[in-house]
Amino acid sequence: MAAKTIKVDYLARVEGEGALHVKLRGDRVEDVKLRIFEPPRLFEAFLRGRRIEEAPDITARICGICPVAYQMSAVHAIERALGVTVDPAVRLLRRLIYCGEWIESHALHVYMLHAPDFLGYEDAIEMARDHKETVEQGLRLKKIGNDLMAVLGGREIHPISACLGGFYRVPSKSELLALVEDLKWALEASVATARFVAGFEFPDFEQDYEFVALSHPDEYPLNEGRLVSNKGLDIDVSEYEEHFFEQHAKHSNALQSQLRKRGSYLVGPLARYNLNFSKLTPIAQQTACECKAEPPCLNPFKSIVVRAIELVFACEEALRIIDEYEPPAAPRVDVPVRAGAGQAITEAPRGILYHRYEFDGEGTIRSAKIVPPTSQNQRRIEDDLWQFVPRIAARPVEEITWRCEQAVRNYDPCISCATHFLRMEIVRE
Amino acid sequence: MGKPLIIGCGNPDRGDDAAGLLVVKRLRSMGIAAEEHSGEGLALMEAWSGAGSVILIDAVVTGAAPGAISVWDARTAPVSRGAFRASTHSFGAAEAVELARALDRLPASLTIYGIEGKNFERGARPAPEVLAAVEEVAQRIAEQVQSITKEVEG
User: Fold this and answer.
1) Are the beta carbons of B99 and A135 separated by less than 8 Å?
2) Where are the domains of chain B?
3) Which residues on chain B place their C-beta less than 8 Å from a C-beta of chain A?
4) Per-residue pLDDT tens over the stretch A121-168
5) Distance from C-alpha of B4 to C-alpha of B26, rounded to nearest angstrom
6) Is the distance from CB of B111 to CB of B56 less than 8 angstroms?
7) Which residue, among B48, B88, B104, would best test binding to A if mutated, counting the most A CBs under 10 Å from its CB?
8) B5-153 sits in which CATH class?
9) Which of A113, A333, A365, B56 fits a 20 to 30 Å CA distance from A206?
10) Residue A294 falls inside a structural domain
């Protein structure tokens, strides 16, 4: 039987450089490789010998899309090691800057990167010619996320204000109140976004995923919580490495994470949503019901709807925090330096981001470990393709290629982060 | 038309990709205001929003010899998306121009200077031919700015 190769040499609309190789014999998939060839980033090695205070700023440089996630996992890990408790207002501000990053990142992915797949456009530029207002809406949403990050972080890309113990500078109440009108618009626009994307056509494809996300007793997870799954995992974040391991696949510069004895798992919006729906803010829950997207949502293509619902959540939560906020007595608390080791997991827009640091009595980092969400989803993306491609194998190569790229983008992969990835190749023999 | 907003794009640590940033540095040394930019497309659209006249400088790959200078009037013709080095999410200067065109967000005047690059390796130095082109583009832009300043003042 003839074999065919589906090859995407350079996956577009993902962050970083990677490729996809799929080999088919008839309807049978013989090989799937998500190749990440973005060069190794070596950040864990850069951190050795640096001071703990530098970790949030060094690791923020790993990603221009989710620098806040890196800063937050870094500060929380080191603070946990040193037993530091931050001011409740600082805790709120950390949640708020994270909301800014979620708004910016989710708006970018929903509108600019993923929606063109569903609407049949090559890219957002082609889509903008027919859907001008929609694209404008997405751009404005993204900008509001950026503005929120800039007010809290000093600038929107690689913010510079977060530090151990708090922030170098905290905003005044009036600085935050100035964002309220835009955020109210963003909340309405996010609800409209969810309704819009819920109307897309989704391939009929569901999988028995192990969803992994943080879970917090009182709130939709961002900065803290226990690590849980729908298949019985319930651990403190410090136990992460006992349950998860990383493996090097020859075809990829990114390490692939797996759950011991269970294999691939899914992190990100779908996992958070299925595990924490009851903690979503009221308008976000209401929007989900209106969009008929109540959990469990097992179709990865519907992640675009979930991302839009999380946009609603992030805007609502940001408004709640701004309403409640009173500046802390001091922008940061003292951080006593002593030898220690600490781990933290926070919810980057793409899923859980694990950091571990060990440092000496002078505060010099001796070792660091960083496991970004795309490394954790990489094996799951390949597993999805193993299951999904046979269903579309009889279709023309161009359509298979299109659908495969769309399936990869379900995960909003951030290849730059994962290399410590997308070109596509389908082989049909 | 008033003084143009001058934006140079690039990555300072990736060989010839630094060209746009080096033009900014040279213009500043001549007392001409210019902005450095990573070249990320959406941020670029933000950077020029509200500006009437914009000059954009970026490294390009068109197949010409390194250091060759191309000039495009973005208002009159689509920009070749293959020529510009795309930044994050494959969304760089060319995509910014074409998205802005689709959204009627192009400045009234947008001139793009492309400086042909060849080596974009991490940590590489820009080629001598590229540096010569940087100087030439800076001089051309300086002359353009000076003649506009004279018009405005005259």
Assistant:
1) yes
2) 5-153
3) 38, 40, 42-43, 45-46, 88-91, 95, 98-99, 102-104, 122
4) 988 899 999 999 999 999 999 999 999 999 999 887 788 999 999 999
5) 16
6) yes
7) B88
8) alpha beta
9) A113
10) yes
